[in-house]
Design a protein that fits this description.
Aldehyde Dehydrogenase, Chain A, domain 2; alpha/beta; six-stranded mixed beta sheet; globular; 2 domains; Aldehyde Dehydrogenase, Chain A, domain 1; seven-stranded mixed beta sheet; NAD-dependent succinate-semialdehyde dehydrogenase; 481 residues
């Protein structure tokens, strides 16, 4: 076992120091066996306010650093994360239950955002516009918005942080991070490594605590914060949006999803099965772009169900630290109760369980396949966030599109076909921010990530990702002779 304990910390990190305002602690639980990994000081709104004050002060000097300086620091941070990859992945697996191989993959994915935006920092170009009269000269500059509040979920405890703060740091913003209380240890570890890389005090601050509503409210209502970036439920996103309204903060919101996975009759079924397995069961179905509804054309429905069921039978449940594990535990009791509710609802409405449907232990739920799914079932409209795969039947392309779009959400979608014309028709008809065609793995630091409708607003990652941390300043120089 590697010495991951060197990266376990019990306090928030503010102004370059480990600090706590509260004397109480909360336990960080391993969802595999419910053992206590560690105890962390349970801070709240008071320390968030102090962190904002610190970040606001640090912004005055950080924004003046050269892009080359910021880029060098970010690359040092990237290198330190990669050097401690095994240790961070171990911590992540312990506190989230994620299979170790997936944790390692997330370290790469999350660190790549730092590397990408370290490079993009040098390409934060402005513009020169021809004057609208002969004696005027026009310029457009891009300037950092200020202090950024990053509120992140438990399912990607490094990538959701780096995807938000890497572009912020690259353009000259300072940040206050409020990570999930389910997975605070990964966040504290990478903040420590940022400090070791040489980031000035106050530029990156992480405050941990269980009072999410009050901590979030401080970030949203404090006038010294200029932008909020949040990943989480649509319900909470709407609350944050309301709380930000008085100060008209910039917002990036990546919210709920209900991803359709459409299999047309001309699809390569083996390829579709492979995509559905990875898209549905990665991290036990607990990701924002997970396949939520599998829609299969009637001519190939039975064949697909048979092949998909056979493939899912081979998935191995277990401890995330076991190299053979593919399905880990669900994150908490609330998730377990949601799976049970959805199974009972599906059975009562005519669903046929082809595989699974049971709890292996109080923490584990079997990969589950439900045939004969219909629009009356809970998962037709709601995000599952677990290892349940409902399979719906459709007749025509038009019906598939209607079914896919019949949701308030619009984050990720997928479809499989060999028909080139169909790829154009369907991708344009799907009301989603992300469309995967014949591929279930669509995440990368190089692409714009985000949704439409009630899946949020704004984009993270890619060359577009920095735009949401910048203000445009128009400069008009007159009387030039």
């Amino acid at each position: 076992m590697n010495d991951y304990s060197k990266l376990i910390f019990e306090k928030s990190f503010v102004n370059g120091e480990w600090i706590n305002e509260s004397d109480s602690k909360f336990e960080v639980i391993n969802p595999f066996d419910l053992s206590v990994i560690g105890q962390v000081y349970n801070d709240d709104r008071l320390l968030v306010k102090k962190a904002i004050d610190v970040a606001h002060s640090a912004f005055k000097t950080w924004k003046k650093t050269s892009v080359k300086e910021r880029s060098i620091l970010m690359m040092k941070w990237y290198d330190l994360i990669m050097q401690n990859k095994i240790e961070i992945a171990t911590i992540m697996t312990l506190e989230s239950g994620k299979p170790f191989a997936e944790s390692l993959g997330e370290i790469d994915y999350g660190a790549n955002y730092i590397q990408w935006f370290a490079e993009e920092a040098k390409r934060n170009y402005g513009d020169v516009i021809p004057g609208f009269t002969s004696e005027k000269r026009i310029m457009v500059l891009k300037e950092p918005v200020g202090v950024v509040g990053a509120i992140t979920p438990w399912n990607f405890p490094i990538a959701m942080i780096t995807r938000k703060i890497a572009p912020a740091l690259a353009v000259g913003c300072t940040v206050v991070i409020r990570p999930s209380e389910e997975t605070p240890l990964t966040a504290l570890a990478i903040n420590y490594l940022a400090h070791e890389a040489g980031f000035p005090k106050g530029v990156i601050n992480t405050v941990v605590g269980t009072n999410a509503s009050e901590m979030g409210k401080e970030l949203c209502e404090n006038s010294k914060v200029s932008k909020i970036s949040f990943t989480g439920s649509t319900t909470v996103g709407k609350i944050l949006m309301q709380q930000c309204s008085d100060s008209l903060k910039k917002l990036s919101l990546e919210l709920g999803g209900n991803a359709p996975f459409i299999v047309f009759e001309d699809a390569d079924l083996d390829l579709a099965v492979k995509g559905a397995i990875s898209g549905k069961f990665r991290f036990s179905g607990q990701t924002c772009v997970c396949v939520n509804r599998i829609l299969v054309q009637e001519n190939v429905y039975d064949t697909f169900v048979e092949k998909f069921t056979a493939a899912a039978k081979n998935l191995k449940l277990g401890n995330g630290l076991d190299s053979e594990t593919q399905i880990g535990p669900l994150i908490n009791q609330k998730a377990i109760e949601r799976m049970n509710e959805m199974i009972q609802d599906a059975i009562s409405k005519g669903g046929e369980i082809k595989l699974g449907g049971n709890f292996v232990t109080p923490q584990f739920f079997e990969p589950t396949i439900i045939a004969n799914a219909n629009s009356e079932m809970l998962f037709a409209k709601n995000e599952i966030f677990g290892p349940i795969a409902p399979i719906f039947k459709f007749k025509t392309e038009e019906e598939a599109i209607e079914m896919a779009n019949d949701t308030i959400y619009g984050l990720a979608s997928y479809f499989y076909t060999k028909d080139l014309n169909r790829t154009w028709r369907v991708r344009e008809a799907l009301e989603y921010g992300i469309v995967g065609i014949n591929d279930g793995l669509i995440s990368s630091e190089m692409v714009p990530f985000g949704g439409v409708k009630q899946s949020g607003q704004g984009r993270e990652g890619s060359k577009y990702g920095m735009d949401y941390y910048l203000d445009l300043k128009y400069i008009c120089i007159g009387n030039v002779e």
